[in-house]
Amino acid sequence: MNRPIDTRTRIMDVAEAAVLAKGFEATSIEEIVAATGITKGGFFYHFPDKNALGQALLERYIVAEDALLADIGDKARALTDDPLQMMLVYMKLLADLIADMPNGHPGCLIAAAVYQERLFSPEVRALNRDALLRWRGLFLDMLQAIEAEYPKRDDVPLEHVADMVSAVVDGGIILSKALSEPKATSQQVLLYRSYVKLLFTPPRA
Length: 205
Description:
Elements: H1 7-22, H2 29-36, H3 40-46, H4 50-79, H5 83-99, H6 109-115, H7 122-147, H8 158-179, H9 184-200
Helix pairs in contact: 1-2, 4-5, 4-7, 5-7, 5-9, 6-7, 7-8, 8-9
């Protein structure tokens, strides 16, 4: 038996869909209230203002994203002990996950908040920064483990290669939405995977 969704969660679900579709600034409290069937007083009972809603959305999004990436990492590590193969498996699993989304990746709340960061408090902007730094740290750890066993074929800073994951995913989402090509994001992730493979695979003799 499905449990009923509580009002706070319903507000956040409606708001997240609207924000991913058109951004924070274009999403109004009035439309959220109308879509959830509550009063404005009901909204303000849960969120004192729009900034508080934005912060709650980001916090929830980051927790879910961290859990998802951790799960992918566990699956990749269960398949291989080799650090290069582990990252290649990881990126393939991530690409497959995105490719399985029927309408393409719905969008990134972190990117949406960055595009309109003037709307938010320093606390929300700090949340964004910390989330991106966690992504950098996650992929940098993988890349450093690879470098310990496989020499790089190009003199590029690994921090920049780690940051490419954020650039590739968010750029892929933009391509997907602008061109109405749902598979664009997963294709870009697979291209990043190929780059990592080329960066560390020794040339044939």
